[in-house]
Amino acid sequence: MTRPVSRLSIEDVSVDFGGIRALTDVSFGLESGSIVGLIGPNGAGKSTLLNCISGITRPTRGRVRLDETILSVLSASSVARHGIGRVFQHPELVTELSVHDNLLVACHRALDYGLIGELLRLPNVRQQERDAADKVADVLTRLGIGDSADKRVGSLPYGHRKLIDLGRALLMDIRFLLLDEPIAGLNDVEVARLGEILLGLRREFGLGILIVEHNMPFVSRLCDRLVVLDLGQLIANGPPADVLADAKVMASYLGEAADA
Ligand SMILES: Nc1ncnc2c1ncn2[C@@H]1O[C@H](COP(=O)(O)OP(=O)(O)OP(=O)(O)O)[C@@H](O)[C@H]1O
Questions:
Q1: Which of 46, 180, 213 has most ligand 1 atoms within 8 Å of its beta carbon, as the pocket-test mutant?
Q2: Which residue is closest in CA terms to ligand 1's atom 8?
Q3: Which end of the chain has less Cβ packing within 10 Å, N or C?
Q4: Which of 16, 23, 48 best tests ligand 1's pocket when mutated (most atoms within 8 Å of CB)?
Q5: pLDDT by residue, tens only, the chain of 260 residues
Q6: Residue 98, φ and ψ in degrees, nearest 5
Q7: Cβ(44)–Cβ(229) below 8 Å
Q8: What is the distance in A from the centroid of ligand 1 to the CA of 39?
């Protein structure tokens, strides 16, 4: 069944941290089924914008909407329940637990069977647990790490851990996925695999994906569109080839190189 197209809208968002203006009147939209790269030099406001979308930071002005629902008045957990998944730069997993159990924990957060049902282990609880185990197995297969299901997370390489963190977001029935520097610390093979996984998620589930990433070859290959922030302002929004040839964008990156 094809899902209706959803739209995530960032509308005139500004964020002040005390005297620091991190974002100024930023507006753009992202539809389900599209992959958009959010780029810009260090300190441009990319993480602040991801935090605004996921309900961690409240905009000082402006708003974030998912179709008709205003997300920017909701808590982070409520935003997640509306289908906005977030994967952070550094995975936060329980290293003493197995891969399977880490994912099962994420699944249980999404389940709602109540304390009494759980204590009495009612039939619907057992069914939900079987469904959760099946979902975990599906996600592990999709990510190509089914063989590691029983391994302790702490024993796995960083690239695997990042995939497990992505798996946790996928278990939440999301419509949009926000990724913060997903390929930092990955080797070439892992980067290529992650690219394939993201394209598969868009193709099969129509996920909308917003990626903050400094690696230009990766974002230009993968993204339909790039949105560029510089000093908290949106300075370009368009197809990768056009954006990367834009004089303002080149100047903002050259400025960063000159400062380095
Ligand atoms: N909690 C905070 N309190 C005060 N200032 C903050 C806070 N978070 C971010 N800032 C400031 O807001 C601006 C934007 O920061 P942000 O981390 O969003 O940029 P970024 O584009 O994600 O940078 P990077 O690529 O280095 O991660 C910076 O000047 C930063 O110092």
A1: 46
A2: 48
A3: N
A4: 48
A5: 567 899 999 999 999 999 899 999 999 999 999 999 999 999 999 999 999 999 999 999 999 999 999 999 999 999 999 999 999 888 888 899 999 999 988 777 655 555 555 555 665 667 777 888 888 999 999 898 889 999 999 999 888 899 999 999 998 889 999 999 999 989 999 999 999 999 999 999 999 999 999 999 999 999 999 999 999 999 999 999 999 999 999 988 766 655 55
A6: -75, 165
A7: yes
A8: 13
Q: Residue 48 Cα, ligand 1 centroid: separation in angstroms? A: 6
> Does the predicted interface ipTM exceed a cut of 0.85?
yes
How far is Cα 244 from Cα 141, in angstroms, rounded to an integer? Answer: 36
Is 94's C-beta closer than 6 angstroms to any atom of ligand 1?
no
